[in-house]
Structures are given as C-alpha cells and as structure tokens.
Amino acid sequence: MQRRDLLKFISVAPLVGGAVGNKLSASPAKAGAYGAAGRDLFKEFGIRTFINGRGTITAMSGSLMHDEVLDAIKGTSRKFCMLDEAQDKIGAKIAELCHAESAVVTSGAFSALTLGLAGVLTGTDEEKVRQLPHLEGTGMKSEVICQRAHDITYNHAFLNTGCKIVMVDTVEELRNAINEKTALLFFLNINADRGQIGHEEWIKLGREYNVPTLIDMAADVPPVENLWRFNDMGFDLVCVSGGKAMRGPQSAGLLMGRKRFIDGARLSMPPRGFNIGRGMKVNKEEIFGMYVALEKFINEDHDKVWKDWEDRTAMVADEVKKVAGVTTEVTVPKLGNVTPNLHISWDEQRVALTGQELAERLRNGNPSIEIVPARGSKVWLTVWMMLPGEEKVVAKRIREELTKATVA
Ligand SMILES: *Cc1c(COP(=O)(O)O)cnc(C)c1O
C-alpha cells in the first residue's frame, strides 16, 4: 500500500486512523490531491494492495520506487535519446561509482547473469553473438562451474546461453572439472557461507586457469559497500538487482565488470536484435531511474536508515508483547536481505491461533497485510518495505488478532 493510499484509507477508516492519524493527518491536502490527480487503477481492476511485511519479493511486485526515481522516469520520458548513448554515459558513471571498469543497466539481475555470460562467450564477435544459444561447432566455450551449495533457481539464467552447469564441491573437484570448454566460474554471494570455497579463493582459481569469475549479489545490498567490494576484490563480473533494496525500477539491474565482457554483453542487448537478449529490453526511463536509485542509495545515511528500521521493529515488538503469552526476537540475516527480522511467537495454550491463521487474517483484513507465517504459533515480518507509519497499523492489527484469539 502506498503512503497516499494509506492516507486515503485513513480518511475513511477512523478505526485505523486512530493508530496513525496524528502523524499523517498533517497533510490532508495530499490525500485529496491523489483523488483529483488520477485514477485508482488498483481499485478499477479490483486488484488487492497490501502493506508489505515480507521484503522484496518479485511475486509481490518487489519494492516501491523512491519519489526521486519516479521523477527521473517521468522527467526523461518527454524526450527521445539514443539508447546506446544513454547506456554508454550512464554506464560509465555507474562503473565509476562502483569501482568497475564498465557497467550497463540490464533488466534485472537475472538478465545480468545471462548477458554477462553471453559477453564472456562471444566477446565482440558479432558472428558468435548471432550463433547463441547454439554453441556446438562454434568454437565457443560451453560450461559454467558452480559450487553445489551455490546452485539456486536463478542459475537457469546461464542455460539461456546454451551453456551447461557443472557442479563441484571441493577445490580438487573444481580443478578436475576445468577444461578447454570452461567459460565461467560462478559464485553466489547469498550462499557464500555454505560452499567450501570462499570469494578470494574462487577468484584466485579463476586467475590460475585464466577463467573469468562472476558473482551474483542480487539481494546483497545493504551493506552498501558490497556495490564496490566485489569489483575491488577482483571478480570479473558482478550482477545486482536494481529493484530490491535500492528501490530502483523493479525490472532493472546492473551488470558491472571488465570492459571487454560488458562490450560483448551489449551486443546481445537491445537496440540490437539477432541475439538472445533482444527481449531483455531496458528503456531510457529505467536506465535513468536505475542511476538515480543507485546514487540515492550510495548517498544515504545508512546508519540512520538502520536505526529507523530498529526503532520501528521495536515499536511493533512492544505493541504485540502487550498480549499475554507473546514473545518476540529480532534476528538479522548474515547474507542477503540484511534487515532486522522480527519473529513473533506465542504460547498456544493462551492464544489459540496458528501462524498460518494469523497471516490469513491479516491478509483478509482491511488494510490487507502480508507477513510470513512460520510453523506452529509463530510468524515473522520486516518493516523494511513498509512505508512510514504502516508499522503502526501492522502492530495494531497483530495485537488485535492475537487478543481476539486469547483463551479466557
Ligand atoms: C532476486 C535475485 C535474482 C534475480 O534478480 P532480478 O533483479 O529480480 O532479476 C538473482 N539472484 C539472486 C540471488 C536473487 O536474490
């Protein structure tokens, strides 16, 4: 639910207004302006909107773009420019900000994986670009090496180039797996603590055999330093999502790294056709929007943002703990989606409700709220993607449902 929707909702829902009204009622003009300025297309189509307590989930439309990003999109939508010129100039600036030789805005991290590998396979040979994804008899390499612990669904992105993925567990297996067909050594940051081979050793092995290394760190900002850490470390290619924590366009991402590979990847991208990437189009508005999101994210006071998340998380915890038998715990994932997660559990003898039931009641309530049900009498949520004030609505609703289910 957008802030403006929340405001609108408050104006017709005194019940919830009581929880968040004080802070937000200072700008009633905004609520009115929304009604006058445009159509409520969600309402027109009967599409459910909700307060997002789950984080950046693609199926839930990811993240909400910052106003600055929306302004950039709208502002750049009034004029034409050459797509390549936008990618050249904005890519150069992104590369500079992230300590890479070169960069390009892709349609998400997934396409960055496909296009990055395409760039490695073809280089700037246009004949090879046209041949993908048929590698046999072309002289192109055809294998990507991946640690078994780093094998997740998104790795399908590599198969789109015609390559196959070879799984290894140990350094010895990797050494045995490398051959003249090996195109790439792939590393998945979110599972960095699971594989036997770490970042630095992965890069070292790549250099030893002269095979490029690529890291998928799609969901690994914050911390913001990760935007340049893996370029500094020596990965040849780095792939990031633009529509997760950075809150750029949901269909944008970054491919950064060695210029020769990015130059190659660009040949598999629009505006050129006759390639595997013509369908992975990024328009100029998204390129500018991605840049503004990145710039904003880099310049943000991340300590302040973190403190804000902690405060809002504590607010929800304090409110729900007012129900007898309820306990809370805050955890922070070590890798990926690094934000405070609030776990709420309760004594089943005192509150007759499962986590699944609570999640359903919140989803079916007004406003609709999405949190994560856990097994038994437990749920978890994050205030990460909630707009200011929404956490109060969430706290109040959870307390309400837990109180209702309290056994007398
Ligand atoms: C989200 C994610 C992707 C896909 O990113 P998009 O920007 O949605 O294309 C790839 N890899 C990992 C590890 C992810 O978390």
Mean pLDDT: 92
Multimeric organization: single chain
Please summarize the sheet with the most strands: 7 strands, mixed
**Helix tally?**
17
What compounds are bound to the protein? pyridoxal-5'-phosphate
From the N-terminal CA to the C-terminal CA, the straight-line distance is: 35 Å
Strand order of the largest sheet: 2-8-7-6-5-3-4
Low-confidence stretches: 1-36
Helix content: 40-55%
Shape: globular
Number of strands: 13
Strand % is: 5-15%
Question: Order of SSEs, N→C?
Answer: HHHHEHHEHHEHEHEHEHEEHHHEEHEEEH
Question: Which class of secondary structure composition applies to the elements?
Answer: alpha/beta
Please characterize this protein's 3D structure:
The protein is α/β, with parallel strands linked by helices and 408 residues long. Helices cover 44% and strands 14% of the residues. It is built from 17 helices and 13 strands. α1 (3-12) packs across α3, α6 runs parallel beside α14 (284-299) and α7 packs across α13 (259-267). The longest helix is centred in the C-terminal third of the chain and has 19 residues, at 302-320. The protein starts with a helix and ends with a helix. Residues 1-36 have low confidence and may be disordered. The site of pyridoxal-5'-phosphate has 12 residues, from α7.
